Backbone:
């Protein structure tokens, strides 16, 4: 039993496990805003179903779909985010080893940026099929006029909506196999690498800022604040790539009428038809969710990681008795 605890308490494994917990907690906390962001993002020119304020859009979602609408796609998102977040935090701690002068040494801002970027690419590559399925699940029950007509049709269609594995199998068979499950991976990687890099870089710097003089760690409130700041900065800087990712993920979805031939073509068409604001559709609910999402993510990550690492310290203390 002691050997198992020693293995689990290794820094990379502890970060991997804590990252999975952090991902599930953070996504569930902000599920309604996460789904609303996606619905805003996929509205191309001419669509007005969700052209309204965030409170009105949330009210519309509640009236039409209830609690299930608020949580639509969250199960898949958690199944995706647990390994995604676990791999991301674990990979970050793995890549840190190549830059540390000694085990546990602090890294400089640019070293954190590089390690975070590599960790983001690693995590998104492993879990991308679940991300594209989550996007499809998030919008398939929404009231887009081109997707549904009458209330009876809405209810009938909702009862027949495929689940996660069924949808993934259909996409694999009808959209080009593995290629279909990785549609939109390039803009995703282009956005995730700097996003994760900035997130780790800013969080570590903000964490030091919120640590009281003479203390080793900030308080829980300080960790929450550092997470909120890092998430807001990283999301704002890389948001257009997130819009591109969602558009490509539904590029072949029947009824959505999006036809992009590549990243450059998508950017050109979005700006020409929707203006520069089109690249920032959904940023309001995104910024509203980023503070509680990243704050809860970092706080739950540090709490879980420290608890796991304490197993090793406890064993070492028992040996000294």
Residues:
């Amino acid at each position: 039993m002691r050997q198992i605890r020693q293995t689990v308490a290794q820094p990379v494994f502890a970060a991997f496990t804590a990252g999975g917990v952090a991902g599930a907690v953070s996504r569930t906390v902000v599920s309604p805003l996460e789904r609303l962001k996606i619905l805003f993002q996929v509205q191309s020119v001419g669509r007005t179903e969700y052209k309204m304020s965030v409170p009105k859009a949330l009210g519309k979602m509640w009236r039409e779909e209830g609690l299930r609408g608020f949580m639509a796609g969250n199960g898949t998102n958690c199944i995706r985010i647990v390994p995604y977040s676990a791999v991301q935090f674990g990979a970050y701690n793995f890549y840190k080893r190549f830059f540390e002068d000694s085990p546990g040494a602090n890294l400089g801002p640019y070293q954190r940026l590089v390690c975070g970027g590599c960790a983001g690419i690693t995590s998104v590559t492993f879990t991308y099929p679940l991300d594209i399925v989550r996007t499809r699940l998030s919008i398939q029950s929404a009231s887009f006029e081109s997707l549904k007509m009458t209330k009876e049709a809405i209810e009938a269609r909702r009862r027949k909506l495929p689940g996660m594995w069924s949808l993934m199998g259909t996409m694999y068979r009808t959209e080009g196999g593995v290629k279909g499950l990785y549609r939109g991976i390039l803009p995703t990687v282009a956005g995730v690498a700097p996003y994760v890099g900035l997130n780790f870089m800013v969080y570590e710097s903000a964490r030091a800022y919120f640590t009281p003089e003479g203390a080793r760690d900030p308080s829980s409130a300080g960790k929450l604040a550092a997470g909120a700041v890092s998430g807001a900065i990283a999301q704002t800087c890389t948001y257009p790539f997130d819009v591109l990712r969602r558009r490509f993920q539904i590029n072949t979805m029947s009824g959505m009428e999006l036809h992009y031939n590549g990243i450059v073509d998508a950017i050109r068409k979005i700006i020409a038809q929707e203006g520069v604001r089109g690249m920032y559709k959904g940023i309001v609910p995104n910024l509203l969710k980023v503070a509680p999402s990243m704050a809860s993510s970092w706080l739950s990550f540090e709490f879980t990681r420290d608890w796991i690492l304490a197993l090793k310290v406890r064993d070492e203390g028992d040996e000294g008795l």
Q: What stands out?
A: Confidence is low (pLDDT under 50) at residues 145-150. The two ends are 18 Å apart (CA to CA). The chain has 13 helices and no strands.
